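Dear colleagues,

As part of the handover before I leave the project, I'm documenting each prediction I ran so the next person doesn't have to rerun anything. This entry is a single chain, and its sequence is reproduced below.
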Amino acid sequence: MITPEELLQKAENAMQFAYAPYSNFKVGAALLCKDGSIFTGCNVENAAYGVCNCAERTALFKAVSEGYTEFTSIAIVGGKDGEIDEFCFPCGTCRQALSEFVDQTFKFYFKDNKGTIASYTFEEILPHSFDLL
């Protein structure tokens, strides 16, 4: 069983690959599947901001594209110039994208520059998410 600390370390490793020449804000994510598989992602910016992709969705899309659709948790870290500062919460688009595949008990893990780890359920991060099913 992977610990939140181990998942956060994988997110930190992924953050190093972020392509963020415009904001210099690098983000890494590590998505844990129910079977123990882990998919990582980083943010990828573009001069046309609308085609940028967040770390969380990069990890999610990698997993789904390989047939994984059941997840238990995600670790997210980020900061200016790749230095972790405060907790790096996911944007609304990433929260909604994850809502398609997770239940309300899905966990989010965050770490700040002091090494403090925070944990939230999906219900706490996105109450009343949009759902057609």
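The longest strand covers residues 71-80. The CA atoms of residues 4 and 58 lie 20 Å apart.

All the best with the project,
I.
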